[in-house]
Amino acid sequence: MMISLVLLLPILLGLLSYITKNKVVNRIALLGTPLVNILVASAYWFNYQWDWAPGWLSEYFRVDSIGLYFFSVMTIVFSSVAIYSLSYFKQHNFSLKQESVYIFEILLFVMAMTGVIMATHLALLWVFVEATTLTSALLIYFEKKKSSLEAAWKYVYICSIGITLAFVGIILLSIASRSIDSLFFTDLYKRASEINPFWLKIAFAFIFVGLGTKIGIAPFHAWLPDAHSEAPSPVSALLSGTLLNTAFLGIFRVQEIFVFADLESFSNFLFLGTGFLSLMVCSVFILRLKNYKRMLAYSSIENMGLLFIALSLGKTGIFIVLLQVLAHSLSKTSLFLTSGNILYLYKSKKIDDVSCLLKKDPRTGWLWIISMLAIIGMPPFPVFLSKFLIVKALWTQGLTWLTIPFFLFLVIITYGMSRAVFNMAFGDKENLTHNKLTYTAYLPQIVLLIILLVIGINLPREMLNFINSIAGLIN
Q1: Count of CA atoms in the C-beta half-sphere (13 A) of 117
Q2: Residue 472: exposed, middle, or buried by beta-carbon count in 10 A (0-12, 13-18, 19+)?
Q3: In this structure, are residues 200 and 243 in contact, taking their beta carbons and an 8 Å threshold?
Q4: CA atoms of 160 and 355, how far apart (whole Å)
Q5: What is the mean pLDDT of residues 415-430?
Q6: Per-residue model confidence as pLDDT tens digits over 362-394
Q7: How far apart, in whole angstroms, are the C-alpha atoms of residue 266 and residue 297?
Q8: Confidence tier at 1 by pLDDT (50, 70, 90)
Q9: With CB atoms counted within 10 Å of each terminal CB, which end of the chain scores lower, N or C?
Q10: Which phi and psi (to 5°) does residue 121 adopt?
Q11: Where are the alpha helices (DSSP H) in 93-145?
């Protein structure tokens, strides 16, 4: 019943909002859906599960430990975006029709991501990944500008090629696992040793490139800066804070086939190489960027690189992955939502056009600075712990020499982001126009940063045990 609820309710409420175009219905759909997700996630966390559902639904969708973790992170981000969207509506003076279209599209997008997280079958996961592409493309083009149209088409074109390659990989995997005659993850894990190693490696190469394109990892990242910078700020937060995670979860599940087949050395090499390449790409471009939303997009490429590096480091790496997923999602959501405030206040995405932010709107200014400190890994924020553990794992696994480029790239990225953020927050040219923001433009970021501080200062023991249990189950 719970799985049915989170998969079907967004569609029903979205359609109801789109058809009625009523303000009350819009608010119920926008705020009620994340509330239901929170209740469902809480029920699973407290081991209260009411999962009556049709047989086919319970067979193809399931909430396992790692799925629950990713679903919980998505729910936190989605809840923040839903609340902030109330301010976004006021900033742009949307009509009820525009609100209804926005809500309909965003709920379809969330439903598609939920399907990826809960899918138990590789081909079904692929279907929902493709659904996230189509639904998010509508959101990227939502403001109907020429630049957003170009970004949406670029996103659809590149990701569709990637998804096609992933589909070829799935076909090759089905050939390699012909004796198993199943693409359910549980069957593939249990009988991984029966899969032909040669074809498994070829299949993984296609899936890696395909889902890697969706994740935005270098060198398959060309769509990401344009899409993130042109989408509405709450949509950018969802793209960075949840979409990249769901695509990463897909490749994470495929990686486990290699773990059970004792072939992880092959996949780990790909993860490690592309992870460092992503850090390098971000460090090269971030010093030259003039658009603060593109800067945040390149930061997402960096953080996906960190996830790939961590995934190549075994059991310790799994712990880092789970911590980094939460830390990046919450930090980047806070940054993108705050960038929406800046865009409203200054009517520009250019870094040079934003100055004296702390004087113009102190709340936005401090949220901008603190969120930046969170994403670059300033103590006590949890990204610091993630990076520290990556260095420790590289050291203990005999990869000490990799810590040199690792530190170099991180220093460059930190300098590039902090220089831009502090120039925007302080500066010497104050824009004299005054626009007021409602409390919903600040509240989500404040809550997210408080969560990050609590985790960074004293990681709750229950959460620590849960993450450790996932790492133990997977490895």
Answers
A1: 28
A2: exposed
A3: no
A4: 39
A5: 87
A6: 999 999 999 999 999 999 999 999 999 999 999
A7: 29
A8: low
A9: N
A10: -125, 135
A11: 96-118, 122-140
Q: Cα(189)–Cα(24) distance, rounded to whole angstroms?
A: 47
Average pLDDT over residues 451-470: 86
Beta bridge partners of 119: 61
- Using an 8 Å Cβ cutoff, are 267 and 169 in contact? no
Query: What is the tens place of the pLDDT at every residue in 404-418?
Result: 999 999 999 999 999
Tokens 């530190």 found at:
407
Q: Which residues lie below 8 Å from residue 311, measured CB to CB, with a gap of 6+?
A: 252, 255, 268, 271, 275, 317, 318, 321
Q: Can you tell me the distance from the alpha carbon of 49 to that of 323, in angstroms, rounded to the nearest whole number?
A: 25
User: SS3 for 381?
Assistant: coil
| Least confidently predicted of 293-307, 409-423, 458-472 | 458-472
Amino acid in position 454: V
Tokens 């296609």: give the residue.
206
Nearest to 13 by CA among 98, 84, 105: 105
Give residue 315's pLDDT: 78
121: which strand partners?
184
DSSP 316-344: HHHHHHHHHHHHHHHHHHHHHHHHHHHHH
- Neighbouring residues of 245: CB distance < 8 A, sequence distance ≥ 6: 70, 73, 74, 325, 329
Beta strands, E only, 340-446: none
The contacts of residue 277 (CB under 8 Å, 6+ apart) are: 218, 219, 305
Strand, coil or helix: what is 121?
strand
Q: How big, in percent rounded to 5, are the helix, strand and coil portions of the chain?
A: 80, 0, 20
The mean pLDDT of 113-137, rounded to a whole number, is 94
Q: Which pLDDT score is estimated for 474? A: 59
Beta-carbon contacts of 259 under 8 Å, excluding residues fewer than 6 positions away, are 474, 475
- Cβ atoms of 331 and 375 within 8 Å: the answer is yes
C-alpha span between 138 and 374 (Å, rounded): 30
Q: Are 129 and 250 in contact (CB under 8 A)?
A: yes
pLDDT category of residue 323 using cuts at 50, 70 and 90: very high
At residue 316, the pLDDT reads 81
Burial (CB count within 10 angstroms: exposed 0-12, middle 13-18, buried 19+), residue 451: middle
Taking only the tens place, the pLDDT of each residue in 15-61 is 999 999 999 999 999 999 999 999 999 988 887 665 555 666 778 89
User: Please, how many CA atoms are within 13 Å of residue 255, restricted to the half-sphere of its CB?
Assistant: 28
- Residue 321 tokens read as 């992955």
Residue with tokens 């056009």: 353
Q: Would you give the end-to-end CA distance of the chain in angstroms?
A: 31
